[in-house]
Amino acid sequence: MKTTFALGITLFALNMPSTVFSQDAAQGEVMFKQACATCHSLTTEQGSLLGPALHGVTKRPGRTDAWLTQWISDPQGMIGKKDPLAIKLLNQYNKVPMTNMLQALKGGDKTKIMKATKDILAFLKLNDAKTPKKGKMKRKKKG
Hints:
This protein starts with a helix and ends in a 14-residue tail after the last helix. Helix 2 (about 25-35) crosses helix 7 (about 110-130) and helix 3 packs across helix 7 (about 110-130). The protein has helices at about 1-15, 25-35, 65-75, 75-80, 85-90, 100-105, 110-130. The protein contains 7 helices and no strands. Helix content is about 50%, strand content about 0%. The protein has one domain: Orthogonal Bundle (Cytochrome Bc1 Complex, Chain D, domain 2). By secondary structure, the chain is mostly helical.
């Protein structure tokens, strides 16, 4: 009976779309530009942007995948729960809370928010693997 159940779960998982289990750094870059780039650079310097520069964020103390996933997907929730690192960041950035842009972009759909969060995290890890750049991220001009 246990073998049949395990086999059934395995077959179910193998037939699931790969997007359920994978992180897509290319899609994460798209989401980063839509949801994060207004306030954050991908360099080592904050410049004139509101939020911290994010190069190296996945390697900073306390920034585990689980913590970053929760922070990206629900920053206000973490502040509400008095997460020590979330409170430290809030205080460090003049009590200006990180806006949950994914909530608006994904219409509050938790599955879509979580997928976008994991994609952004994959993109941030890819960015962190590169040699750090100084200065603000250059944005492409529209039109």
